[in-house]
Amino acid sequence: MKTSALAADGKSVEQLDRAVMFLGPPGAGKGTQAKELASHYRVPHLSTGDMLRENIAKGTPLGVKAEPIMKRGELVPDSLVLKMVARRIEEPDCTHGFVFDGFPRTVAQAQYLMILLRQNGYKPALVVHFVIDSALLLRRITGRRMCKVGGEIYNIYELPPKCDLRCDNHGGELEQRTDDREEIVGPRLQAYAKQTAPLVAYYRRLGRLHEVDAAKSVEEVKQQVLEIVRTAR
Description:
With 233 residues, the chain is an alpha/beta fold. The protein is 45% helix and 15% strand. It is built from 8 helices and 8 strands. The protein has helices at residues 30-41, 48-58, 61-71, 78-88, 107-119, 134-142, 182-206, 218-231; strands at 18-23, 45-46, 98-101, 123-131, 144-147, 153-155, 174-175, 209-213. It has a 5-stranded parallel β-sheet with strand order 2-3-1-4-8. A hairpin with a 5-residue loop joins β5 and β6 (153-155). α6 (134-142) packs across α7 (182-206). The protein is globular and about 55 Å long.
């Protein structure tokens, strides 16, 4: 792995020099791991949702087009999303790579992104697929509870509070988000699996897909991801 110039603490820093994409169902932990990897390599953690909101807040031409679509609850078309992605990865902070969380979502997006990366001189992208048993995933999501006071997150199965349904820090009541209820989560996971299966197959055919066991602890998954990034060509 190449190293960059010395960081502020005088130590050399590993360079990513490529795009890393995380694929995985809601609740698999890919958002947490994307932030961890981006922080480790000091590169941007990119989310199309965040980028759309930023464009809307700044009133860019792209944001002006996307805002009414999002307000109607519709999906922003690929033509706008891909244009936004193309501009974002040309920014100076992406020079040494970046981490994408939840993008691409379709084979068409993946094919276009591959062209963009080649045009910008990046090494071949890595795709990390978070694999987890659906029953365990459902338990993880439906067990989540959030403190109404401080926003702390618990899990009644894996990380329960000391006092039943009360936050350890504030004593605030713990609540379940509406979209964490089983009747909502079940269909979401089914829809995700159906949508993502072709994308997973596409990256596997290209030899770019690497799988991690998302059922393990946050630290164990982090080490799996780092090992993939450090050893992959």
